[in-house]
Amino acid sequence: MGESGKMNTSNTEFFEALALMEKEKGIPRSLLAEKIATAIGNAIRRDMGASEDSVVDINPDTGRFYVAMRKTVVDDLLDPAQEILPEEAVKYDSGATLGDIVEIPLDTKQFGRIAAQTAKHVIRQGIREAERGQLFAEFSSRQHDIVTATVLRTDQVRGNVTLELGKSEAVLPKGEQVPGEEYADGARIKVYVVDVVNGEKGPRIMISRTHPGLVKRLFEMEVPEIFDGTIEVKSISREAGSRTKIAVWSNDENVDPVGACIGPKGQRVSAIVEELGGEKIDVVRYSADPAEFIAAALSPADVVSVEVDPDGAKSCRVSVPDHQLSLAIGNKGQNARLAAKLTGWKIDIKPESGFYGE
Fold it and tell me: pTM, whole model, 2 decimals?
């Protein structure tokens, strides 16, 4: 029994309570014990004037719950909280002499209400902190990944959608929603985790349905060759809900990057199109040669020639067959815009017969 003998029954209950907390809330006993030990240390310093080097040892593994004040042996008592007379000191350490430091074990009852309340508060706070820490770790591991969430409610005024993600909630802002998509309460939707920020009120998870990363991750999940690194996604440009262009390149000359992404009979790409509610996807072959890459990026239009600006300003003039001019430019300029974004080049498109008036 030894020094903590007096407290064994309440100790057992205390450690059983910690074990229960661990089981129910998933918070490690050691973390809770550490928090409570700190609080008890603070409480005895504050309420009993204990010195800084008081001992608080709470060990869930060994069931040890030991709290002691350390006092210096003196012959003239000025501070009873930190000093002790020799005749008292020998009760705790038979060989104690002047100048020695002795440990006076405290019965948990001596902390009284204060330590109990502090412990309660710490447990509450500890649970919150540990839960936040766990959430942060859990979400951080899902950063740049796709998670499935349940729609809880939609803010009719702002249009933001609150989702349930595991044990917590996250908001899908109006600006990160795909135009025209409806999210019914209770529906399960896939969202992309853009970032996780540890805020004052716990981790904030930034999610999106419009981020290009969503399409990239869908391809990684659908195309084993991307997942294993044979095929690389070089760049991606997206106008959510309408069209995405994705540039792919193969590290293995025997693997056709475009064919692998489209899949047999177009199965792979159509599974992604379906997941994105019919958004069109152009899979483009990446090339280190800018002219080749730009020509591929303008698909589905054919390109006759690409003239790269000799000044190295990353701009070029592309000529396309006359009847394909509107296809190359795309509806409201979308095809040309996405190709420019995909390649990082400024693209000037003209019909093969030359600009009118040239």
Answer: 0.66
